[in-house]
């Protein structure tokens, strides 16, 4: 997929930005986003940003517009077809998730719309459920705009970091640095997920992961993961190639 995207980018930057917008649109579109590997595609597009083939701010704008349009299409689908959607067998498979999303929207609509954009399974569902619950547009719009502004760079970031690493000159030191960078980023994401599980431990008590990772074990695993993350980033900061990497990353940010 990355090779195909790179081929299209080579043809035209305009085409690349259209692809970014289309991927963000379908990643946000009701139901489609649940089966589309949008997270992987966004990270892949991030590598093109990191390698300098696509500008960060142009891609950010394109992705923001794409997800904004996808969310509002989903919202109006929910408002228009809420009756048939309630009885659709495909959606009934996700009834528990729909119920939890609806309950969260009833209690904390602003926070739910924003946070829902950053959580994979709920991203294409929150606007749909908001429409099905007849959440007023004036309540849906502000958090939706905030989410669409901040979501693209978060999902581009892993790919950007990888794309910048590609530009580091090859050699033994660069190989060690790249593997350490990959390990540090992986540990960071793992730690963030574990902390999130810990914070939500009371609400996750009935799922399969909680039975495999009960709260006492989760606490120890979370502490060890955070400690390993800190150590890995300290080691990364002492690498001789870190200034080179930092300079290349800064160029991407200001380009």
UniProtKB/TrEMBL annotation:
Q: Which GO terms describe its cellular component?
A: plasma membrane
Write down the superkingdom of origin: Bacteria
Q: Where does it live in the cell? A: Cell membrane
Enumerate the transmembrane spans. Answer: 12-36, 56-77, 149-170, 176-196, 217-236
* A Pfam entry, by short name: VTT_dom
Q: Does the keyword Transmembrane apply?
A: yes
**Record keywords, A-Z:** Cell membrane, Membrane, Transmembrane, Transmembrane helix
Q: How does it sit in the membrane?
A: Multi-pass membrane protein
User: Which protein family is it in?
Assistant: Belongs to the DedA family.
Under what name is this protein listed?
A: DedA family protein
Organismal lineage? Bacteria, Pseudomonadati, Pseudomonadota, Gammaproteobacteria, Enterobacterales
């Amino acid at each position: 997929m990355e090779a195909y995207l790179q081929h299209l980018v080579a043809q035209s930057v305009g085409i690349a930005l259209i692809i970014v917008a289309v991927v963000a649109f379908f990643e946000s579109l009701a139901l489609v986003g649940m089966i589309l590997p949008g997270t992987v595609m966004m990270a892949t597009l991030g590598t093109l940003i990191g390698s300098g083939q696509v500008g960060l701010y142009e891609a950010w704008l394109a992705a923001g517009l794409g997800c904004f349009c996808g969310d509002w299409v989903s919202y109006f689908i929910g408002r228009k077809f809420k009756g048939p959607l309630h009885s659709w067998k495909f959606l009934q498979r996700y009834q528990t998730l729909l119920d939890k999303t609806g309950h969260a929207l009833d209690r904390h609509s602003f926070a739910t719309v924003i946070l829902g954009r950053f959580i994979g399974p709920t991203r294409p569902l929150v606007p749909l459920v908001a429409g099905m619950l007849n959440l007023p547009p004036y309540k849906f719009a502000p958090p939706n705009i905030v989410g669409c502004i901040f979501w693209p760079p978060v999902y581009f970031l892993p790919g950007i970091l990888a794309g910048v690493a590609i530009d580091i000159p090859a050699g033994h030191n660069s190989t060690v640095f790249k593997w350490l960078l990959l390990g540090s980023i992986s540990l960071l994401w793992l730690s963030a997920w574990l902390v999130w599980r810990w914070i939500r431990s009371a609400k996750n008590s009935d799922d399969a992961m909680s039975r495999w990772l009960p709260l006492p074990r989760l606490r120890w695993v979370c502490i060890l993961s955070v400690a390993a993350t800190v150590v890995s980033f300290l080691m990364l900061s002492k690498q001789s190639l870190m200034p080179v990497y930092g300079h290349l990353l800064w160029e991407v940010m200001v380009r």
